[in-house]
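Journal club side-thread
Mid-discussion, someone asked how the predicted structure for our own chain would compare to the paper's figures. Pasting it here so we can look after the session.
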Amino acid sequence: MALRPPPGDLFLMRHGQTEWNAQGRLQGLQDSPLTPLGITQAHRQAWLMRDLLHLPRYASSAGRAQQTARIVFGGRTFVTDARLQEIDIGRCTGMSLQQMRDRHHGPASDGWIEWYDRAPGGEGMAGLEARLRAFLADLPGPALIVTHGITLRMLRLLAMGWPMARFAEMTVWQGAVHLVRDGQQRVFF
């Protein structure tokens, strides 16, 4: 199924740093609160978005994204959408990438993306792609979106029509805004 490009700009933001981010632990569908740095990062995003808050606003249902969205959107209402959740990594939730490799006997040379795709009991990249295609298809126009690292990468990949082979090229910055416009991307700090 071909994805139609979103009918406007996408301003994509990853939640601010969390306690588990600082510890190098993978969160998946679990949650941990923002650190003081994470709160500062959310305030930076709020400053970057200050003139665009009239646009529709969306956030993942995860606590860390909700906390970030409340700061970024300055108390304005926003739509909570579970489709914007992070990829489910099943039994690997809470582990570091090295722990995933050690416990599930994968070669150390495997790229990090492959681990997200084959986490035992997880959703896999195909599942993530399907729910994000549905989210993008429902967008009526430009939007401000607070989400997660892997999810943000997939949203950009889909919105720009890039193949999955380019997924590893997608960097994500906490405290920044990732803009997708006319099939191109830019990052604002």
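Post-session note: Strands lie at 10-14, 57-59, 79-80, 143-147, 177-181, 184-188.
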